[in-house]
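Notebook, p. 212. Picked up where the previous page left off. The plan for this session was modest: take the two constructs that came back from the sequencing core last week, fold each one, and keep the raw output in the notebook itself so nobody has to go hunting through shared drives later. Recording the first one now, exactly as returned: residue sequence, then the C-alpha cell string.
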Amino acid sequence: MSRRAAPRPIGEALGALNERLEPASTLGSVQRLWASVVGEAIARGARPVGERDGVLQIACDDAVWASELELMGPSLVSSLNAAIGRDVVRAVRVRADGAKGPRRDR
C-alpha cells in the first residue's frame, strides 16, 4: 500500500476551486485581476462591470475617477492584457455612476 502525498494547504485547494468556478469570460478575468492591475486606490473608486467585443465598461464612483481612467485607457488596456496573458481588451469605456442619493438644490 503506497502512502498518499502530504495534504495540500487549504489556500492552494481553494485557489484551484476558485479558478474552476470563475466564469470563462474576459470580464471574469478582468474582475479577478482588477485590483492587482490598477491598485487598491483605483479599485475602491472604479470597477469593471461589462465587456462587449473587447470593449471593457468601467463604472466609477465619480466624474473625477472617470476622467482619470479615460486618460489612462491605453495604459489600462496594455496592463490588463499583459496580466491576462493575451490581447482580449482593446478599449475601455468609462462612466461615472455618482451618488445615487437625492439631489441637493442650492
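Okay, moving on. Second construct, recorded in the same format:
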Amino acid sequence: MANAFFSDLLSTISERGRSLLGRAGATNGKQDSSELLELCEALLSGRGEASATAMAREVLDRYRHLDADGRLSFFAALARDFGPDMAKLSQVVESWRTQSNGDDASDLHFASEPRRQELIRRLNRAPGGTSDLVAMRSDLLSLMKGNKDLAALDRDVVHLLSSWFNRGFLVLRRIDWSSPANILEKIIRYEAVHEIRDWNDLRRRIDPVDRRCYAFFHPALPDEPLIFVEVALTEAIPGAIAPLLAEEREPVPMERARTAVFYSISNTQRGLGGISFGSFLIKQVAEELRRELPKLDNFVTLSPVPGFMQWIKEAADVPLSDDDRKVLEILDRGGWPENPELTAQLRAVLEPLAAHYFLKARTSKGRMIDSVARFHLGNGARLERINWLGDLSPKGVRESAGVMVNYLYRLDDIEKNHEAYANNGEVIASSAVKKLIKGEGRRLLDMRLS
C-alpha cells in the first residue's frame, strides 16, 4: 500500500511537471538520439522537483522509441560526453597536490564522478524509473558486444544498480499456489534450468507439502521476482532430477524429510546481470527452512554441468587416450542411455573426466570453466558428488552427457570454504570426488593430468 501511494505521488508530480514544461507526453514514433541528449543535459541542469521528475519520465519514454542504432548512439554519447567535469577535476587535483587534507580527498572523490551517474540517479526518480533503467541496462549489455567504449558506462550503471539492489532492500517471499497469478506466470516464464511446461507442472513444483519456492523482490519492482529458487524436501541426497519432477510421485512426509535440495535457481532480470543475489538467497532460504524444519540435516543442490560436453569437444588439454575417444563416439549415435553396456563404457571415461573438469581444468585466465560451479563454490559450498545419468533430458544429454552434481552447503563450513576458494582458488571437494580424478580402477590410472 505504501509503495502504491508513493508511486501515485510520483506520477502526480510528474504530470504537474509536464504541464509546467508544456509537454503532454513523450513523442510517439522514431526518436532522434540528439534531441534525447539535449533533454538529458536539461535534466542535469534543472533544479525544480516537479519539472525534473517530468523530464526524467520523458527521457525514459523517448528512449523507448529509439531504434537499435539510436540506442547505440545514445549510449556512446553518454560514455563519451557525460564523464567527469574535467576543468573542475583538474582544479581539485591541483588543490590536492599542493595541500592535501581530508576535505580535499572528499572533493576529489566527488569531482571525479562522471556526470552520467547523476543523470542516472535523476532518471531513477521518474515513476517506474527503476524498472526502465533495468531494461535499459539489458539493452546496453546487448550493444556492448564489439563496443568496448561502452564499458565505462556499464560500470557506472552497475555501480548504481548494485547500491539500489543491495541485500538490505531485498524482501524474501515464498511463492505458493495462492500467490498472485501474474507472479506465478513469471515463475513459469523465467524458469531457466528445468522448463515448466504448464500450470499443472508449476503446481507440482510449489504446492505439495514437500516442495517450496522462494524469491527475492525489490520495493521498486513489487511484482517482479528478481531471482527464485525451487526446493525439494527429501529423505536423502538425490542423484537424478527425473524423480523430483515426476508427475506421479508420493510426497515425502515432513517428519521424514532430512534434506533440502535446491534443484533450480533462476535469475529473471538480464539488466541486473553481474549483481549477485543467489548467495544471499540460498543462505536465507536455508535459515528459513532450518527454523521451520529443525530435523533437516543436509542442504544441497542438484545442479547441471552446462559446459562439460563443450569442454570435452573443444579444449586441447582434455586428458583422453585414443581408446577413450573411441568410447565417446557412442555419444554421437544416440540411444545409449537405454543400453546398460554402453552406459557402463561411457561412465568409465566420463566420471573421471568430470572430476578433472571441476578440480583441474581452468580457463586461460585461471578460472573454473563451469559458471554453476563458480557460483556455488564461491558461495562456500562443497563439491559433494558427481551423479552419472542424473539428467537424461535432451538438454542434459546434449550439454553434460547426463552428468549432474551435488554441492553441499554445510552451514558451519560456508565461510571457511568461501575463503579457500576466493583467496586461493581451492575447490573444496569430498573424498569421493577426489578419488575419481585419481582414476581408481579406470583407464585413466596411468595418465598424468596437467
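Notes on construct two before I forget. The two ends are 60 Å apart (CA to CA).
Flagging for discussion at group meeting.
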